[in-house]
């Protein structure tokens, strides 16, 4: 919120920021939480699987099961799914443009979900809007 009000002052929308003199709690430099717990992730992926939008499950599976970064997941294409040495893999463009092969989990992975036939492409298979980004 402080940043939002700062931008409003810079853009001269507000004369001064109401957040200037608000005391904020001390936050440790590193978070003690490493990520979602097992039950939290299970609830998240179950909710995504039940969603009416099939992209919800695909995104949660890519982020949670494969450990991809958001820009890696949004940049993945159906054409990037493949097989290497008998293992299903996803070709991912990571930081610095490096291409790596990420192994797909056996059973229940994103590629095991039934998909309708569609043209090759990115993270917006029905083409009703712009490609998903961060």
Write up this protein.
With 134 residues, this protein is α+β, with helices and mostly antiparallel strands. It has four helices and three strands; from the N terminus they run H-H-H-H-E-E-E. The protein has helices at 2-10, 38-50, 54-64, 70-74; strands at residues 81-84, 87-93, 99-103. Strands 1-2-3 form a three-stranded antiparallel beta sheet, with no helix packed on it. A hairpin with a 2-residue loop joins strand 1 and strand 2. Helix 2 (38-50) runs antiparallel to helix 3 (54-64). The protein is elongated, with a radius of gyration of 20 Å. The two termini are 20 Å apart.
Summed up:
This protein has helices at 2-10, 38-50, 54-64, 70-74; strands spanning 81-84, 87-93, 99-103.
* Mean of pLDDT: 82
Strand line-up of the largest beta sheet: 1-2-3
Helix proportion: 25-40%
**What order do the helices and strands follow?**
HHHHEEE
The profile of the biggest β sheet is:
3 strands, antiparallel
Please report the number of helical segments. 4
Class computed from helices, strands and strand pairing: alpha+beta
**What's the β-strand tally?**
3
């Amino acid at each position: 919120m402080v940043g939002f009000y700062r931008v409003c002052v810079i853009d001269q929308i507000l004369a001064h920021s109401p957040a200037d003199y608000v005391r904020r709690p001390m936050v440790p430099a590193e978070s003690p939480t490493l990520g979602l717990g097992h039950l939290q992730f299970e609830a998240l992926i179950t909710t995504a699987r039940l969603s009416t939008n099939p992209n919800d499950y695909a995104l949660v599976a890519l982020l949670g099961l494969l450990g991809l970064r958001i820009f890696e997941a949004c940049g993945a294409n159906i054409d990037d799914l493949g097989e290497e040495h008998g293992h299903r893999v996803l070709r991912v463009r990571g930081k610095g443009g490096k291409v790596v092969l990420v192994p797909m989990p056996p059973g229940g992975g994103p590629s095991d979900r039934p998909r309708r036939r569609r043209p090759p492409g990115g993270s917006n298979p029905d083409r009703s809007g712009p490609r998903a980004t961060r």
